[in-house]
Amino acid sequence: DAGVHSKAWYAATCDRKMAEDALYRSNKDGSFLVRKSSGQDSRQPYTLVVFYNRRVYNIPIRFIESTRQYALGREKSGEERFGSVAEIVENHQHTSLVLIDSQNNTKDSTKLKHIVRVS
């Protein structure tokens, strides 16, 4: 169990469009939620959705079978790994999360500050 089901930031029945719409409505930097990934792939079960600088970032949360841990984004050397999705969220409420815009090749960073509920 990733430790997501009882969390206020977990939007169980939310798809990508609903998540993005909710974050645009919040319009606050650092707004976020976690949703199930669209692909329903066991190696990428969830997506962290973050609003920053008038943009929404969908960051895949990977499950690493060999260590039973979670990590963000594409696999990279020296990446941070966590025992649960909840630990990722808690960590990035205090430590900045790097946001990479692949279209414009820019990097930003923000902390996870505002939980967005999808209604």
Architecture overview:
- The structure is a single chain.
- By secondary structure, the chain is α/β, with parallel strands linked by helices.
- It has one domain (10-115): SHC Adaptor Protein, CATH 3.30.505.
- Helices cover 18% and strands 40% of the residues.
- The chain contains two helices and eight strands.
- Strands 1, 2, 3, 4, 5 and 8 form a six-stranded mixed β-sheet that branches. A two-stranded antiparallel ribbon has the order 6-7.
- A hairpin with a 4-residue loop joins strand 6 and strand 7.
- The longest helix is centred in the first third of the chain and has 11 residues, at 16-26.
- It is globular and about 40 Å long.
- It starts with 9 loop residues before the first strand and ends with a strand.
- One of its GO terms (biological process) is cell surface receptor protein tyrosine kinase signaling pathway.
- It comes from Nyctibius bracteatus (Rufous potoo).
- This is BLNK protein.
Average of pLDDT: 93
Number of strands: 8
Percent helix:
10-25%
Question: How would you describe the shape?
Answer: globular
Order of helices and strands: EHEEEEHEEE
Distance between the termini: 25 Å
What CATH calls the topology is SHC Adaptor Protein
- For the record, what is the CATH homologous superfamily label? SH2 domain
The top level CATH class name: Alpha Beta
Q: Can you count the helices? A: 2
Radius of gyration: 13 Å
Q: What's the domain count?
A: 1
CATH architecture classification name: 2-Layer Sandwich
Strand content: 35-45%
Unreliable stretches: none
Largest sheet: 6 strands, mixed
Backbone structural class: alpha/beta
